[in-house]
Design a protein that fits this description.
It contains 18 helices and 12 strands. The chain is an alpha+beta fold. The chain starts with 24 loop residues before the first helix and ends in a 17-residue tail after the last helix.
Length: 575
């Protein structure tokens, strides 16, 4: 079966902010940590336009015209690929090889079904060069480049805030703009610290002429996460200093007025309307809890919470970590059902990202022979019998999509198959699919559920799993109050996170922290996982993924900005 290779570029892309200039493609590759941003702004109208362009275009589109056309297509896709949610056949950006396990052996024993000639760590390091970045094959480049561009854009905007003459309540407006910058800096540092073994703290704007002045003191990922939390806290403090943070329609509050202008109008539907101050603070709590959860181990290997992972880059969750998540997220402190948070939508004119290429969802839905990505049998097996989310979204293909390890019997139907009240996973219609850019109700509820299960409140945790399933229209029997053990409850929790948080850029972090992606020799591995054999018969096997837990720093940074003598390792020292 032949596979159509899909690529996109930003040529002719209509920007929201014409006053922001960009460097050419070569310069992007030269300097991912310091893009050029130049504009003259002297009033509120110009400031709003500048903030919108710097955030949405420079932050989430600039440098992302590789596979798909935004940060939510390629970097998000790596999260789904490395969690074995998706497979691919095209060679673009290394998507067909970066997620290949080291080996697959039948659960009942016998000869290996598959052995990888290029294990992932070797793959990453072979292609982590500036030359391979220019050729579009260095997977480490894209998230690093996007998030440091976003961070640098916020560095550029912050000093402009006090230079403008404001109408209305100037203090409230200034604090709203500050909160915006601090929040997205927290987001950017979180993405770096959650993906790479080391990073840079860069809190001063750098342009193309002075980027070499940026720090060359690379810090361990936990210090980058600490910087993320610092900026989330700074955003919360700025919000708390605002006199009126109402978000009611027609509200005269300056806070709401600013947010309504900074968020693209076509994003402002569903959960994408401007958040109130209370809603934004709850989002910050959820994001801080995410920083804890995804950057510690909570091993659950082969159905056992007694599993341990040796020689990992990060430590295991402790009692204080679970308690911190409950403090941040439980009791209504995190994102609630119906909360406005930051979500995205596509549109025909002046989009941030396009309907057909801007999200990993758009690149996956539809017939397997036409899509860039295909779901895997390992993902499908997370659905329990009778789950309406499966019957509404995953029709059986007339022919098996044959792609070795990633052969699959199903596709994702755009807009679903018409079951009312059941979640769908994507659409080819403008504005129909809601992209979650930050934490959601489901993510928050499942973090609380996991913390409760891990700290002894098994039924309390399972009740939240049931609530998420009900919220998404699953229509399956409740599991709370059924006498499940801790390990059985974690089985429900892990399968629900994979299903409920599909395409939200989190799947890889879960596979990593549960230990599945670590080598079997370190205590990891995936057990009793479905795959199709060479005759397309359903089998179960043991997957030794042997994936690198935190990626090396891109060569595009380390070559032009060599580490200082006191720097943390820029290559993962555990792999």
């Amino acid at each position: 079966m032949k596979k159509r290779i899909i690529t996109y570029s930003l040529t002719g892309f209509i920007l929201m902010l014409a006053s922001v200039s960009c460097t050419d493609q070569l310069e992007k590759l030269q300097n991912p940590n310091a893009p050029t941003l130049e504009a003259n702004v002297n009033d509120e109208t110009g400031l709003v336009k500048l903030f919108k362009g710097a955030t949405w275009i420079d932050g989430f589109v600039y440098q992302m015209g590789w596979l798909g056309d935004s940060y939510f297509s390629l970097p998000y896709s790596y999260a789904e690929l490395n969690a074995d949610i998706l497979g691919a056949q095209s060679a673009n950006q290394n998507i067909s090889t970066i997620n290949l396990p080291l080996s697959i052996t039948p659960s009942g024993g016998g000869a290996a079904f598959y052995t990888n000639p290029l294990p992932q760590t070797q793959n990453i390091r072979t292609f982590n060069t500036r030359a391979f970045t220019a050729a579009g094959e260095n997977v480490t480049y894209y998230q690093w480049a996007a998030m440091y561009t976003l961070n640098n854009a916020m560095n550029w905007l912050l000093p402009l805030i006090p230079t403008i003459k404001y109408t209305g309540n100037a203090a409230d407006k200034k604090n709203t703009y500050k909160a915006w910058c601090y929040f997205w800096k927290g987001y950017a540092y979180a993405a770096i610290g959650s993906q790479y073994c080391a990073g840079l703290i860069n809190d001063t704007y750098k342009n193309a002429n002075n980027y070499r002045a940026t720090s060359n003191n690379y810090l361990t990922q936990d210090k980058i996460i600490a910087q993320s939390n610092l900026y989330y806290d700074s955003a919360a403090s700025a919000i708390a200093a605002i006199s009126n943070t109402d978000n009611a329609t027609g509200s005269p509050a300056d806070f709401n007025s600013v947010l309504s202008q900074l968020i693209p109008t076509f994003f402002q539907t569903g959960n994408g309307n401007p958040p109130s101050g209370a809603e934004w603070l709850r989002t910050i709590n959820t994001m801080k809890a995410r920083n804890i959860l995804v950057n510690k181990l909570a091993p659950y290997v082969n159905g056992s919470s007694a599993a341990t992972i040796s020689n990992a880059l990060v430590p295991a969750m402790g009692a204080t970590d679970w308690a911190a998540i409950l403090t941040l997220c439980d009791g209504g402190n995190g994102v609630r059902q119906g909360d406005n948070c930051f979500t995205g939508r596509s549109t025909t004119l002046n989009p941030v990202y396009t309907t057909l290429g801007g999200t990993v969802s758009a690149l996956t839905i539809g017939p397997t022979e036409a899509s860039t990505f295909q779901i895997t049998e390992r993902f499908v097996q997370n659905y329990k019998p009778g789950d309406a989310r499966f019957t509404n979204n995953f029709p059986t293909e007339p022919d098996v999509w044959s792609n070795g390890v990633f052969s699959v019997r199903y596709r994702i139907e755009p807009d679903g198959l018409g079951q009312a009240g059941v979640v769908t996973y994507g659409s080819f219609n403008d504005g129909a699919y809601q992209l979650y850019i930050v934490g959601s109700y489901e993510e928050n509820a499942l973090m609380v559920a996991e913390a409760k299960i891990q700290t002894g409140d098994i039924n309390g945790g399972l009740a939240l799993v049931d609530q998420v399933r009900q919220y998404q229209g699953a229509g399956i029997a409740a599991v709370s109050g059924t006498g499940l053990t801790k390990d059985q409850a974690l089985g429900e929790l892990t399968r629900e996170r994979r299903v409920a948080l599909l395409f939200r850029g989190l799947s890889y972090y879960d596979s990593r922290r549960w230990g599945w992606n670590y080598p079997i020799s370190m205590g990891g591995g995936g057990y009793n996982l479905n795959y199709l054999d060479d005759n397309d018969n359903l089998q179960q096997g043991t997957f030794d993924y042997s994936f690198m837990d935190y990626w090396d720093v891109p060569a595009d940074e380390t070559v032009l900005n060599p580490p200082s003598g006191s720097s943390a390792p820029v290559k993962n020292p555990k792999f």
